[in-house]
Amino acid sequence: MDLIEINQKVKAIIRQAGNYIKQERGKVKAHHITDKSLNNLVSYVDKTAELLLVKNLKEILPQAGFLTEEKTVAQDDKPLRWIIDPLDGTTNFLFGLPIYSVSIALTQDEEILIGAIFIPELDELFSATKNGGAFLNDRPIKVSRTQTIDTSLAATGFPYFKFEYMDFYMSLLEKYIRSTRGVRRLGSAAVDLAYVACGRFDFYFEMELNPWDIAAGLLIVAEAGGQTSNFDGTGSAFSGKEILASNKTLHHLLLEKPTKKRIQAK
Known about the structure:
single chain; alpha+beta; Fructose-1,6-Bisphosphatase, Chain A, domain 1; D-Maltodextrin-Binding Protein, domain 2; 2 domains; 7-stranded mixed β-sheet; 5-stranded mixed β-sheet; 14 strands
């Protein structure tokens, strides 16, 4: 399997889907929007973009399975699998905010082989292949060289699906508001990870995500020289339950010891 060749095709496919989403901005009406769950909106744009991605990705690797946010195709656990978020940052998109993205990853037995994130409004395409480096619009990128927490800029997202995590999360947020140069909340986990990969953010932390939110970004950060894990460094971030992403110097400084509140939340 030629990952470089496949990645070139993925980049064309993700641009096509992103450009479709961009052209629909401002056309979505209230009756087009539904609530999948609390604070979790979806419109025809998400679903149409996913169908477009699935169709084109099937042509590249007919044998691969799919794990997708909108479930427009049968979900399976084949060893070779595409993981897709057709529109990460749907709420931003629906409210006219320009920070949203398309995210595609190719995995083999949960090893991430290819990752691509496209931000249509900024025409920024982040991509990586396993052991092949990370790129922004085909130019190599690296994580930041920031060495201390007090000189770092952080990113996060709020756990607004499961409020039982709120006390622990708010204590963590307060800690970083007090100890960094700032904490930003953009509204797209894929964008947050891409921005860690290119050094715009020094680190990113969040809870209760899904593989389609972060799979592509995990590879892009790693290939840019960064490190990802759960909050205490004892496990992978792949499940999305906890994610910490940063450069390698900051990573060990940021690892969070288990606390009673956190254990109870789990």
